[in-house]
Structure formats: C-alpha cells, structure tokens
Design goal:
Elements: H1 2-28, E1 37-43, E2 48-54, E3 59-62, E4 65-66, E5 72-75, E6 79-86, E7 89-96, E8 101-108, E9 113-123
Antiparallel strand pairs: 1-2, 1-9, 2-3, 3-4, 5-6, 6-7, 7-8, 8-9
C-alpha cells in the first residue's frame, strides 16, 4: 500500500505542477493587447482621414497630431465632437461612432463654409 500511495501522490503533484506552469505561462507571459486604443479610417472619394482614439485617456490623435483636450466637446461611446480655430479657420468635426460617419465642417471669417462627409471603419493599429 505504501508504494501505490507514493506513486499516486507523485503523479498528482506532477500534474499539478504542469497545470500550474501552463496557467502561469498563458496568463503572465503572453503579450497584453491594449484595447483602449482604436484606429479609425474615414474615407470619401476625395480624401482619407485617420484617427487614433484612446478611450482610457480620452484623447484623439487626428492626422498625426493630438487634438487639445479643451477642443473636444463630446467624448463618449456613441460620439466624438471637437471644435478649434487654426489659421483664421474654424474647424468642427463630429464622429458618429455607432453609424461610422464623420462630418467635417470648415468655415472662415468671410462665412465661407466647406462640409465634407466621410464613411468610417475600424482598422488595426499599425506601428
């Protein structure tokens, strides 16, 4: 009886070590994916705009530049809206995150307005 108890205990301890090692490797050593950042590509027949949206930090990078946080008027799961002034032109964007539509409105001091509509989709984040 002593030998069989020792063998069963040895096998159970060995299986526990193997299972514990597998759990450790699968949870700790695998790369962690940052799901807070989303890459968005918006296109129309004339132009393409890309965004990097970080929901965790509530930031938007548009065309390689960080939108100043004070310019963002709406930031939630359904929409992002921002408005800023640059070179005497006021730019407004509204991104409908549910429908995947982007509206860009550019107006100057002479009341000339230019509105562009884009269709958007999520893309993988490149590095």
């Amino acid at each position: 009886m002593g030998n069989t108890t020792f063998i069963i205990t040895f096998v159970l301890v060995g299986l526990s070590i193997v299972l514990g090692g597998f759990v450790f490797i699968s949870t700790q050593l695998m790369p962690k994916y940052n799901t807070a950042q989303k890459a968005i590509k918006c296109t129309n027949p004339e132009a393409t705009i890309s965004f990097l949206i970080d929901d965790e930090n509530r930031t938007v990078i548009m065309a390689g530049e960080l939108l100043p946080p004070k310019t963002i008027t709406i930031f939630n799961k359904t929409a992002i809206s921002a408005k800023w002034l640059h070179s005497n032109e006021q730019t407004k964007i509204f991104l409908d995150r549910i429908a995947g539509r982007l509206l860009v409105e550019i107006s100057d001091k002479l009341a000339n307005e230019h509105i562009e509509k884009f269709d958007c989709s999520a893309v993988s984040v490149r590095f």
